[in-house]
Amino acid sequence: MDHRVTSTIAFVAAAVTIVSQMSSVLSMLEPQFAEPIPNVTIPVGRDVSLPCVVSNLGNYKVAWIHIDRKMILAVHKHVIARMPRFTMSHDGQKTWSLHINGVRPSDKGVYMCQVNTDPMISQIGYLRVVVPPNIVDDESSASTVAVREGLNISLTCKAKGNPEPKIVWKRENALKITVDRRKKVEKQHGNVLNLTRVSRSDMGSYLCIASNGVPPSVSKRIVLDVEFSPTLAVPNQLVGAPLGTDVTIDCQTEAYPRPISFWMFHESRTMIFSGSKHHLAVNEDGYKAHMLLTIRSLSPEDYGSYKCVTKNSLGEAEGSMRIYEIPRPSQNPKSTLELLNRATHNGLNKEYLFLLLFSYILTPWPFT
């Protein structure tokens, strides 16, 4: 009797072991995900593949779903969605890949790989689509902005992208930005650049540079024109020159908008033009200009007052100078040397020679 009980117990134990092993085998034959779906970051416009690795798929089917769109994209090897950019492939073993060509921003979001077991099994991965910055012209300042000197102005630069772009302002030619009239900085952050009580030195090109870590960064060039009425300076108001020589007179002007500038001979109240007698030149540097008038071979009629005039839509300025006659310098250094040599030869003492030189130095120019 004891032997039969022992045999029964052994049989039951063996049966339990077999059932357990069979259950383990069966569970191994059920579909399982062998690897997680990776989270992928991809720039817009590129191609991307999302793999779903399934072991023991058997007769079950794999499906891809875009959760954000609430759309079934593909089942097994068949693409359900009417989106030619999406395709499905199988490597012949365990990997079922969803391919997206030319990724768009709307493709971002959660993708689910699903197996139609009972109950269903699934796993998800996230597709992050990054977009390089793009400056929105309609929401930014125009390429050229004008403001009167002494007023305030704000320059705006708006950019889109993913991640959200950051804006940095700089000036061209390594010039510094004047902030609140109190300090100068090489760069300023933010979508809006506020300039207070602008001056003519603030005039020039400003660059708004948008970047978000996704190349390439982009920039917009905004030219700031500061308008003011002309100012004028005359370096030399009296200029002496001998008959028959050439003489040049000049004026230095500052104005914006760009002025109309000209020369006049005050004695005849006539405007002067370039020709055989006169040569006019203007050297411009931004809102600054250097006006030059050269009068060739001075005659008695050329002596007198000259006027430089500069005008723009905001006002005008003028400056006067006078050209007067001076005698030609006497070129007789030989006679002076001869005088000194003769004095030494005649035995004049040092004291007399010193007095002679001293009186020569004090003699008014031109020497005769």
UniProtKB/TrEMBL annotation:
It holds the Pfam family V-set. GO terms for cellular component: neuron projection; plasma membrane. It comes from the Eukaryota. The keyword Repeat applies. It is found in: Cell membrane. InterPro entries: Ig-like_dom, Ig-like_dom_sf, Ig-like_fold, Ig_sub, Ig_sub2, Ig_V-set, Neural/epithelial_adhesion. Keywords: Cell membrane, Disulfide bond, Glycoprotein, Immunoglobulin domain, Membrane, Repeat, Signal. The keyword Protein transport does not apply. This is Lachesin-like. It comes from Sipha flava. The gene is LOC112682931.
